[in-house]
Amino acid sequence: AAAAPAGWECPASYPGGGFPSTVNGHAFIGYHGSWNRDPPTGYKVVRVPMTSEGQPVVSSGSSSGSTAAAAEPEQPIDLMRHQGSSAAWASGLRPVDVRFDRCGRLLVSDDGAGYIVMITAAVAAPG
Question: How would you label 75-95 residue by residue, b for 16+ Cβ within 10 Å and e otherwise?
Fold first, then answer.
């Protein structure tokens, strides 16, 4: 029983300026939760930092002589996950797919409770 990455998006840039340009090209992945695992795992959306060549960013702790294929990639960054003692949401939320709308908001579909979740970035105002 695993938490499968069910949907992902990795655009070169995000429409509408909804996310900062520092995450252009990063992968956003919806992890469908495990329904038959105890304790449950998954049930979240993550961001994976990517290089401009489309490879996962290698953690700064890897040796300078290693290649990206041999080194450890950075861990995914949780954007949406249950904060309780279980990965499963009491509402039945099970993320499936992720897509950016034309305003730059990340939309997350769900097949457990029928939700569409919207994730936006908090971006500081210029000036």
Answer: ebeebbebeeeebbbeeebbb
CB 39 within 8 A of CB 77: no
pLDDT tens digits, 28-85:
999 887 777 777 788 899 999 998 888 888 876 544 444 545 567 788 999 988 887 7
Quote helix, strand, coil % in the chain, to nearest 5.
Answer: 5, 30, 65
- Could you tell me the pTM of the whole model? 0.79
Token look-up 């290649």 returns 67
The long-range contacts involving 96-101, CB below 8 angstroms and separated by at least 24 positions, are: 96/6, 96/7, 96/30, 96/32, 97/6, 97/7, 97/30, 98/7, 98/8, 98/9, 98/28, 98/29, 98/30, 98/45, 99/7, 99/9, 100/9, 100/11, 100/14, 100/15, 100/18, 100/28, 101/15, 101/16
- Give the distance, in angstroms, between the CA of residue 72 and the centroid of all CA atoms in the same chain: 18
